Amino acid sequence: MSAKFRQLIFDRKLVRARITRDMVVNEIEAAAADLDDSRYSLQNKKLKWAAIQAYYSMFHSARALLYNKGYREKSHFALSVAIEELFSREIGLSMINSFRNAMDLRQEADYGLKFSEAGATETIENAEKLLARAKEILKIK
Question: What is the CATH number of the domain that holds 122?
Fold first, then answer.
């Protein structure tokens, strides 16, 4: 267990929780809905929202994975650390880095009003990959 992961548990930013299968499935459904919304926003040149919605698709995919391990996160950062700790073999460090890049893009879009078509497109592509992989891991169709 990494020092970062242990610290998040100590700080109660990552906690054990009673998670039901329905909660896991609901997160996957939220990920799919946000992905659809991001595609629609991209088609309509709403680049800020496309990037934000694609990030939230990735967030919900990652949260479904975390829930499946019996944890709840208290921050986006905690989720990224937990996913790296618990799923780096299954989804790869490249996807974890894509999730963190999407998190940064979402913050820039939300708070710095910086966004681009390339960033939104890349985030959507990564959201598609993460959702597909999460469904495989979780055995959800």
Answer: 1.20.120.330
